[in-house]
Structure formats: structure tokens, C-alpha cells
Design goal:
mainly alpha, two-stranded parallel ribbon
């Protein structure tokens, strides 16, 4: 059961209208790393979670993300409020109204199509989609994805803070950015509260391939580090990759029933190429005879 408190989780103070900035802030309203995507990701994970501690945490954070959606949506609405009134009442001359609505981004779409209200789109006007929710139903997998999602959202908020000089907006965005850090900490603590959290899932890796590092991009710029060197790794370099890693012949094969062997052989015979044939083709006719080199 949900209960809505009409007060925002964090106070929104906008100094002046700015439809172009409102358009950019929609990235965190209906974008892939925005607050709605986060709320739906954690809410659906929480509904399916069997562990009572993780379930409680996911539903807590999912509900808080909805409050953040309300904060960012309120900022967008305040930035569009003047333009919304001007458009609704046709308060400006046509040319001036046009200039105010096409200030940048997709601000004209927000004004004309959505009347200045916060739309569930990203900053380019692409509608929100459930495809942004990448849960897989395994807690070790989903918690890592959640940590990455909070990290991405934090970076987007940093970039949005950098493009405005409105102190009230900077303050509110700073709060939202900081909550991404707090949620990341909660998800990481929950991940490491599971003793067997790596690798994700139930099955172990196949030895020895779980410790092989394939140095597949070779040449100048090769580097050594803890990601490819040391006691945990068996490094495979360019010269070692001439044969399959499993020691086999590297070919693909299948055992077919006798009847299918016959049909496959018949298909191969029917479609066989003649390597000694060089027929005249349409390409040859278009190109014409070969040009002979001039004698010196």
C-alpha cells in the first residue's frame, strides 16, 4: 500500500524559467539511468526477492526513487512553468513565443506536445521503455547491475550540475546525486553479505578456463596489471592462439541421422562450386575488356 506525502523529499527552488534546461533534465526523469527506471528496477526485484533483508532494502530504495522522480519532475515543471502559461494564453507575439519554445534541446516538443509538463522521455524525446530494466532474477547479478546503475546516474547528475548556474537547482541535483552514492553503498553491502557472491549464479566456472587471460589485442600498447598477470592468471598470448584453447581441432561437427546425411550430401552436390569455371558475368559486361598498359 502506498501513501503519498505532498511535501517533496527535498525542497525545489528554481530561480528562473529555462525550457532548454528542463529538456536536458528529463534525462533523469524518463531516461535509461533516470529515477523511473531505477524505481521500476528495484521494485520488481523486491517483489521477487526471497531474502527478507534484501526484499526490505529493495522496496525501501524503490519507493525513495519515486520520491526522487517527483523532485526532478518538479524541477522540470518549474523550469517550464512560464513557457507553459505563455503558450496556453498565447501571451507573446508569434515570433517571440517561437523563440522561447525553441531555446534548445527538445524544449519545443515538451511545450507543444506535453504543455510544459514533465514527460516520460529522455532529453532527446525518446519515450521511456521497460527495456531500461535489466534485472535477471539472480541477486548477485542484479545487485552488481544496481551498483552500476547508481554509478551511471551519479555521473549524469554531475554533468547536469555542470550545465546550470541556478543555485537552487544545483543544490537539489546535488542531493539527488548524493543519494545515488548512498544507494550504491547499500547494494554493495548487500552483495558482500552473501558469502558466495562470485561468480554469479549456481554453477562454477570450467577449470582451467576461469583463470585464462587471452591477450587477443597484441602489439604496441600491451600492458601488464592485476587484471591479466599474477598468480591468478594463465596468460595466453598471440603465438599460443594458433590452436584451439581446448586442445581440439577447432572444427564444428554434428552427428546426423543417416537420412539427414543423405539429404545434406545431396544439397552439397547440387550447390557445389566449380573452381575451374570462370563464366562471363554481368559484372564483366559492365566493366568491359581489361585495359592494356601503354608501351613506353
Amino acid at each position: 500500500m502506498f501513501s503519498h506525502n505532498k511535501r517533496l523529499q527535498y525542497t525545489v527552488r528554481v530561480s528562473e524559467p529555462n525550457p532548454a534546461l528542463a529538456s536536458l533534465l528529463l534525462e533523469q526523469f524518463g531516461g535509461p539511468d533516470g529515477e523511473l527506471a531505477a524505481a521500476m528496477r528495484y521494485f520488481t526485484q523486491g517483489l521477487a526477492e526471497e531474502d527478507p533483508g534484501r526484499k526490505d532494502m529493495l522496496l525501501d530504495i524503490a519507493t525513495e526513487e519515486l520520491s526522487h522522480l517527483e523532485v526532478i519532475g518538479s524541477i522540470v515543471a518549474m523550469l517550464n512553468k512560464g513557457a507553459k502559461g505563455d503558450l496556453a494564453e498565447a501571451a507573446l507575439e508569434e515570433a517571440e513565443l517561437y523563440r522561447s519554445l525553441t531555446a534548445g534541446g527538445n524544449s519545443h516538443t515538451q511545450a507543444i506536445l506535453y504543455g510544459g509538463g514533465p514527460a516520460l522521455t529522455n532529453s532527446s524525446g525518446v519515450p521511456w521503455t521497460a527495456a531500461y530494466v535489466d534485472s535477471r532474477g539472480d541477486p548477485t547479478c542484479d545487485l552488481r547491475s544496481n551498483i552500476a546503475a547508481e554509478s551511471r546516474a551519479k555521473i549524469i547528475y554531475e554533468r547536469l550540475i555542470a550545465i546550470t548556474d541556478d543555485p537552487g537547482i544545483k543544490d537539489a541535483l546535488g542531493f539527488l546525486m548524493t543519494r545515488e552514492i548512498a544507494h550504491q553503498k547499500s547494494f554493495e553491502k548487500a552483495l558482500y553479505a552473501m558469502a558466495d557472491n562470485f561468480p554469479p549464479g549456481r554453477l562454477p566456472g570450467m577449470e582451467p578456463y576461469d583463470r585464462v587471460y587471452v591477450n587477443a589485442s597484441t602489439g604496441p600498447g600491451d600492458m601488464d596489471g592485476p587484471w591479466n598477470s599474477g598468480p591468478e592468471w594463465e596468460r595466453t598470448d598471440e603465438n599460443d592462439m594458433k590452436t584451439p584453447i581446448d586442445g581440439g581441432d577447432g572444427l564444428a561437427e554434428v552427428t546426423l541421422p543417416a537420412e539427414q546425411v543423405k539429404t545434406v550430401e545431396a544439397m552439397m552436390l547440387r550447390t557445389k562450386s566449380d573452381p575451374n569455371s570462370d563464366p562471363l558475368t554481368g559484372v564483366d559486361l559492365a566493366v568491359g575488356p581489361p585495359v592494356e598498359a601503354d608501351e613506353d
